[in-house]
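Question (not urgent): is this output format expected?
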Amino acid sequence: MPEQPRSRRQTRAAILTHLLQSGGSFRPPLAKSVRLSEASLSRILFDLKAEGLIEEVRQPAPYVGGPTGLVSLDGSVALAGLELTGQWLSVGVGGLTGELHYTERVPLPAKPTVESVGRVFREALTLLRDWTRRRRVRLAQIGVSVPGLGRLSEFGNPIIPCDISRVRALLGDMFADVTVEFTNSVVAHATFHRCRTENYPFSGAHLFVFVGQGVAGAWMDDPIEDDAFQPVELGHMVFGADGPRCRCGHHGCVEAFTSLPALAELLGVLEPELLQRGSDWGGCDPDILARAAGTAASPVSPWPRDRQHAERKALSRRRHLRLAVAPCGE
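Got this back:
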């Protein structure tokens, strides 16, 4: 159970985080989960209702004499998100409860530059503005995820040539009254998995690892803190100078061993096929899979046994390191 929140802001964050993860809660279990008295909780819920962030609807009591008011995030609140990747800029609108109302993708040029990426952002934001105007949707917030974004990359992104200050100014011109937040792409993925994955394996501090075209990580701590999720550079840590060549020019980087292109080459499949299979790699050669998992497959052992052994070994290592691993493309 999380520690007692130390400020009103942290208390509000704890309540909203719990509602996001649970999808809704009656007051008694909500008060218990955030370690508040029901009287203190009622005062904060009153403010959150007035701000239009939550709603409370009558539901049948879960037991005789039980509560009937189910507290949940307000489904009428509209949020917009933009995700920059190596192939395109995705834009979408959804609600606090997870439903998606609108989505669009604007492709990036084969060799993107700061100017061309800026034009792609302008095109995507124009689509977003036109859609919200046609449907008279008022956005509460816009979130933008950019790969490689961090304290040292505010004005020069190391992965995709993107000038954050220009994008911020563009958003200010087109959505002057809307709050805008930028974050690192892996932090966005980590937040999604932490808040929306049923039975997420960890509640305390741990390292979240995302494997895609590259390999990235985020240090995950108590979500009510301002700096709870911090991006961590993993992909270009060198594990062996004699390892495979990485796209950065060095040899033996983590990315050269475990990224989506590296795994696809090792398994002898195309990248789209690997993404489509997800965690179901049953059609791949077991010896190749065993080498990828770091274990040798016995020629006399049936494939399911080798696969289970590799999965148990990987799970054991993950638990030891306190890792939450997001598969390719999720």
